[in-house]
């Protein structure tokens, strides 16, 4: 699935990721309340997530990190 993203144009790719991001943040919004302390670990986890994305030639968008790093982790698990 990850390799098929290269065949999709950039506009559809960004829109598709935006939909996944919205759905992901809705599903894990209730879980965020239990992980306030886990958010402090995001500073050490996020660099590895960037490396994880760059190896698969995917686009990194700052909105994922600004919303919550757990959403980014959720997106990686779903994609």
Molecular structure report:
There is one protein chain. The protein has one domain (3-78). 59% of the residues lie in helices and 0% in strands. It contains four helices and no strands. It has helices at residues 10-27, 42-54, 62-67, 69-78. The longest helix has 18 residues, at 10-27. 9% of the residues are buried.
| Count of helical regions | 4
Order of helices and strands: HHHH
Number of separate domains: 1
First-last Cα distance: 8 Å
The outline comes out as globular
Mean pLDDT: 56
Helix content: 55-70%
Low-confidence stretches: 57-65
How much beta, percentage-wise? Answer: under 5%
Structural class, by secondary structure, is mainly alpha
**Mind describing the biggest β-sheet?**
none
From the alpha carbons, calculate the radius of gyration and give it in angstroms.
13 Å
Number of strands: 0
